[in-house]
Amino acid sequence: MAAVRRNLLKVADTNIPILIEGESGTGKEVICKYLHHHSTCGGGPFVKVSCPAIPGTLLEEELCGHVGGAFTEALAASTGQAEKALSGTLFLDEVSELELSLQSRLLQALQDGGLRTIVSPAGKKVNVRLICATNHRLLQEVGAERFRQDLYYRITGLVLSLPPLRERLEDLEQLAEYFVALYNERFQCSAPPVSESTLRRMTAHRWGGNIRELENLIKRYVVVGSEEAILSEIAQGEVASSDIIPHEVSREKVADSSPRLSLGQLTRNATLLMESRIILDALRVHQWNRKLTARALKISYRSLLYKLKRAGIQNHRQVDSAGAGGRTLEPLS
Question: Yes or no: is domain 2-163 CATH 3.40.50.300?
Fold first, then answer.
């Protein structure tokens, strides 16, 4: 991310078009706004256009507007998004979602670093800073003939690739601190920083939703005021991973057409495994105080004791000796 920031600052004062690639939730719009505010057009407007939301017949009008009488229904002039972004930044989000026919119209509208109102007889040109974003590898889309090559090179003076959160886990703690402070202020709450034990569990999470998933998770934590909001979500994700399948169904038994456990049994085992991990995380948060844990989980104290006995958990020493996060727990029978 430091390299991304250095590249952004190098091109901030230029007017070359930029393409930002990255998975959903990696912060493409945040980076786009960062570039806008650090550029020479930072004092101008920032206009976002969501490409998938534009019907095919309205692309030209949405971007370039029209003059009165340009077509039958045009009784009055309409200002396009490009003109609204005059002396500022026009952000085309998910540009890869444009149909090929729309790509050709966009290519026609893009002229010499600006956008031309091609529906106007005068062909009025509007100079804006153009930034596009996509959650696809756009060059691969070009190779698959789903995106025009000429348009690709028109919008890519520089390509910035944002890494997914799973590839920048060293930033996780700082990002969590930022979101806690942000939503404490926004919601007038006083949630403490996320504990080290929970952060360790978070670094083992896959983060399929990237930073957006982390933000939503921290938002719930701040509002609820308990780290169970984080731990339960992470535990659900863990159950979806490969360790959901107990050892009874192993590669060695592929030749056996009838595994020893049915689908219903496997599902019950997975549910019990997730429940045990949630309880263990809650116990750690409450320093192994079982009464406080039962209250936080909104179950009776007797029910908690029963669940601990069923999981074979007698005390914290037994669990902690198995390793951090209780990851040696076997699926429950």
Answer: yes
